[in-house]
Design a protein that fits this description.
Elements lengths: L1 E3 L3 H5 L6 E2 H7 L4 E4 L2 E4 H6 L5 E2 L2 H11 L16
Parallel strand pairs: 1-3
Antiparallel strand pairs: 2-5, 3-4
Length: 83
């Protein structure tokens, strides 16, 4: 399964929280997240998170965002509103 980065938060809401990091990572192992510079496996991103468990979908989403390099989400220092 492939997801756009913008769809990630909504996707993570389907799981029951709190959830153990390893359990959520295993459940997301077949999901690839499309980034500006390629793809990353969601299970791998979650497995690398610093937290041992996630209290909510927002916690899991934040952990993934924190693990992504700036270049992964688009052009550095650019907002979508700049033209």
């Amino acid at each position: 399964m492939e997801l756009e980065l913008a769809e990630l938060g909504e996707y993570l809401e389907q799981f029951d929280y709190p959830v153990d990091r390893d359990e959520l990572a295993a459940a997301c192992d077949d999901v690839e997240v499309e980034l500006a510079e390629g793809e990353r496996n969601l299970g791998g991103l979650l497995a690398d998170a610093g937290a041992d468990r996630f209290e909510s979908a927002d916690d899991a989403y934040t952990a993934v965002q924190n693990d992504l390099p700036r270049e992964a989400v688009g052009e550095p220092y650019q907002s979508e509103g700049e033209g």
